[in-house]
């Protein structure tokens, strides 16, 4: 299911990109994983959990099943797994 298949007043195109409200629609591609990883642990992000990562993602991007993708990537984060194993 792709954002491009939807037609609604909430969607618009700008400079060749499709937006849902003010969020960029991301097609089913490797960019989704890249964006989630960056929101979870890249740059200034501190390997937040699913809820905070999802909050950051929903501010900027839109795609079907985003929650599932964020949960999957956060669960597989090696840095988070190592930190949890040191605490336990």
Automatic annotation (TrEMBL):
Pfam name, any one: Integrase_H2C2
Domain of life: Eukaryota
TM stretches of this protein: none
Integrase zinc-binding domain segment(s): 30-85
Listed name of the protein: Integrase zinc-binding domain-containing protein
Organism: Noccaea caerulescens (Alpine penny-cress)
